[in-house]
């Protein structure tokens, strides 16, 4: 692949080819592909962050709590210019910045080091509260958003339930959680994942995790005074 070809790989249709450059993590292929449409919609249509604003205090923040199998995340970062496309080919090699789990110190655009499940939502809550405490605002006067992508099985971790309860009670409306529901949770929740968030005071919305327009609508409709949980159904 020459650089002319690489720089042209910037569309949704190019993501399979970008993922195809990364080999050797077959056991996490399902985890990667289940997040692909969600991560693309976020970076393409929702998040206010670019390679040029990646260090701007007023940027939106995306936290990949579901950090195992990050191939889709890396592919989207490459398509959006955070990563050079040729870097994907050597991923997980000794001298590559791209590991099996993203490292915020090595991967441009990564906000946290992730892979150990159950940490992203508490970190996202802390980030949202920190931005609020510092009074950080964008030029239009709105707060930066913090969006956390979690898996449904990950919600079994107790640290998530503490964060869900606190965020709802404090009305942290600059916090959004996207929960990928692929029926992998050990126990499930009465009434579904959305009910778990709703009872704690969150705005909960349920959509197909493959429908780009539905995802965009769920992620952008106002929810004043309440954090937002978008349950994205992705079933094979």
From TrEMBL:
- A GO MF label: magnesium ion binding
**Coiled-coil boundaries:** none
Pfam families with a match to the protein in the record: Transketolase_N
Membrane-crossing ranges are none
InterPro entries in UniProt: THDP-binding, Transketolase_N
Locate the Transketolase N-terminal domain: which residues? 26-204
The protein here is known as Transketolase domain protein
